[in-house]
Amino acid sequence: MLIGGLPSVLGMNLTVLAASGRTGNALTRQALERGHTVTAIARDPGRIDLDHPNLRKVAGDVSDPASIAAVVDADSVVLSGLGTDARGLFSTAPRRSSPPGRGASSGSAPTARVRPPTLRVRAPACSGR
Hints:
Blueprint: E1 13-17, H1 22-33, E2 37-42, E3 55-59, H2 65-69, E4 77-80
Parallel strand pairs: 1-2, 1-4, 2-3
């Protein structure tokens, strides 16, 4: 959680990756509460449990660059809700529905790694004081 306040900029168009998870859901909710328009990307957009007039839910998978590129353009402000594995590496491995060794296959699935997204933000030009 951010301590102290950052100046609020109203009406930004934001894109949130992994919007159906805990972190992505919190980012999306807070952005909407602050008056922003949000494109929420998740593998299963039906799992995004928010409804708002400024919210657009889109299917996309960070392990498939084409699905993200179809939504994100060069001027997008992208926030990442991607989680990490125990070693702190970003992971796109499928999650198990039950704990290892209980019910679901206990074999370990190969894990695809992705780099943390690079966020480039261009500050708007100031036109006086």
